[in-house]
Amino acid sequence: MASSPAPTPPPSDAPPAPDGNENANVNANANENVNAPAPAGANANIPLAAPGLNIPGKPVVILLNATQVKIIIDPNGNTVPTLFAIQDSVSGKFVQADGTLGSVAAYQTLVGWGGDTGVIVKVIPNTRYKFRVVAKKGE
User: Fold this and answer.
1) Which of 26, 33, 58, 139 is paired with 132 by a 20 to 30 Å CA distance?
2) Three-point CA angle 13, 15, 21, nearest 5°
3) Residue 33's pLDDT is what?
4) Residue 16 falls inside a structural domain
5) pLDDT by residue (tens digit) across 52-103?
6) How many CA atoms lie within 13 A of 30 on its CB side?
7) β strands within 8-102, DSSP E
8) How many structural domains does the chain have?
9) Banded model confidence at residue 29, pLDDT cuts 50, 70, 90
């Protein structure tokens, strides 16, 4: 039986190969576990869930293209009127209602974040993102 030729290695300037939840082009991934630490700085003290709420499940992060990912929230049993915010724990920034990243937490209901369809988030190519979801009680 003849052996197969060895695979050709990627060129040295190629992006890294995908690894687990990471993506080769955008490196966007969900938090590795639901207790991922918050980033340092101004947004470091935001807990994953307010008292009386479940910690949201790991969000699903799907690469759409080099500048967009789709994030689908797992509410983990939290129901209306729970509000959710999506945070990139690498930069400490939050997904805003328009899909951009900003410094202020933007809280919306699960439906506001697209429900089972998710929300489209604008990202910068070749930048690492690590998304987590935080929950607080709504009014």
Assistant:
1) 139
2) 165
3) 37
4) no
5) 899 999 899 999 998 999 999 999 999 989 999 999 888 889 999 999 999 9
6) 19
7) 28-30, 57-65, 68-74, 83-88, 94-95, 101-102
8) 1
9) low
pTM, to two decimals: 0.73
Spatial strand order of the sheet with 68-74 comes to 57-65, 68-74, 119-122
For residue 130, is it within any domain? yes
Residue range(s) defining the domain that contains residue 70: 28-136
CB 62 within 8 A of CB 118: yes
**Whole-angstrom distance, CA of residue 118 vs CA of residue 122:** 13
Report if residue 86 sits inside a domain: yes
Per-residue confidence band for 3, with pLDDT thresholds at 50, 70 and 90: low
CATH for 100? 2.60.40
User: Quick one: DSSP state of residue 49?
Assistant: B
